[in-house]
Amino acid sequence: MVKVSDRRVVSDRFRPFASDKSVGNHRFTFAPARTSADISVLRQLFRQAAKWGYINQSQIPDVDTPRVPPSPRPSYSPGEMTKLLKLAQKRMEDRKVNEEVRRDRTILYAYVTVACCTGMRPTELRNLNWGDLLGYREGLSKRLGDRDIRIRARGKGKSREFIPLEYGLSEFDRLWRMWKANHDDKEPADTDPVFAAPDGRRLTSINKSLNALLEAAGLKEDHRGKKRDAYTGQPRL
Q1: Rounded percentage of the chain residues whose pLDDT exceeds 70
Q2: How far is residue 181's CA from residue 184's CA, in Å, rounded to a whole number?
């Protein structure tokens, strides 16, 4: 067993342990981000041990945290985004597909348009309820330019409010009409999801529809070969 008092030995043995691990005949190498996170946790463990008096401050292993190389998510150029939206609209209006496919494509077109007009992330879009469209009900009888609407977005432990671009408001109207058509002309409650299945359940993913659209548009990968998905950054329209 290695004694904590031997700082150099601990450091030398700790470094390879943090980045590589063997199980049987298989050897695994952890990504720099994973290794960096693990080292940070263990460093805090040693510091806490020093505070409690189990070791001296000088006995804490001196291990460098590996540099995590930048890995930006793929994004779209304005031209690519325009191409994607035009194709999404064309596929939505295709009369050769059945009603179920057309409904899925309609929701996808609304999803992509709203994402572009708001900058909302997938988690925020998934969590969006009709009650989060502040002022929406009151403005239904007004033309788009006269509406005063704010969106209350809720993500992973965070929330924010903002004003969406006018261009995206018509897609909320489209989804509103779809809800009423599927629920005997009843309006959705404030707690009902904006992006919903025909039975009113919250849609948890649009990945299948989005992947099909990206493939059809030839935009599944960016210029680096990085695959695009629902988290890919988009320019504001």
Answers
A1: 82
A2: 6
